[in-house]
Amino acid sequence: MTTATKVPVKPLGDRIVVQPLEAEQTTASGLVIPDTAKEKPQEGKVLAVGPGNWDESGAKRIPLDVNEGDVVLYSKYGGTEVKYGGEEYLVLSARDVLAIIEK
């Protein structure tokens, strides 16, 4: 299991902190894509995971399906972009995560 980078941002509830991965900068044929034409990345590495939401009775927390170090695919317009300590992070709700990418 890989360890994630420690971040000074601790998510609450069912939220996670993701560091977006860079999008491809060249096409399959070798053409370089300019910054203005690049798509917003939808893949990122999970750096921190919240404790999960409480169940309906309020007796126990429901854990999240993702763990620190996972690479995930998330909704294109989901989450909130945050800059902290010179780094850019994305804070997502667990429902914005579409899949875990297994490499």
UniProtKB/TrEMBL annotation:
Keywords: Chaperone, Cytoplasm. The keyword Chaperone applies. This is Co-chaperonin GroES. NCBIfam families: PRK00364.1-6, PRK00364.2-2, PRK00364.2-4, PRK00364.2-5. The lineage of its organism: Bacteria, Bacillati, Actinomycetota, Actinomycetes, Streptosporangiales. It is found in: Cytoplasm. Heptamer of 7 subunits arranged in a ring. Interacts with the chaperonin GroEL. The keyword Cytoplasm applies. InterPro entries: Chaperonin_GroES, Chaperonin_GroES_sf, Chaprnonin_Cpn10_CS, GroES-like_sf. Belongs to the GroES chaperonin family. GO terms for cellular component: cytoplasm. One of its GO terms (molecular function) is metal ion binding. PROSITE patterns: CHAPERONINS_CPN10 (PS00681). It comes from the Bacteria. Pfam families: Cpn10 (PF00166). Together with the chaperonin GroEL, plays an essential role in assisting protein folding. The GroEL-GroES system forms a nano-cage that allows encapsulation of the non-native substrate proteins and provides a physical environment optimized to promote and accelerate protein folding. GroES binds to the apical surface of the GroEL ring, thereby capping the opening of the GroEL channel. Gene3D superfamilies: GroES chaperonin.
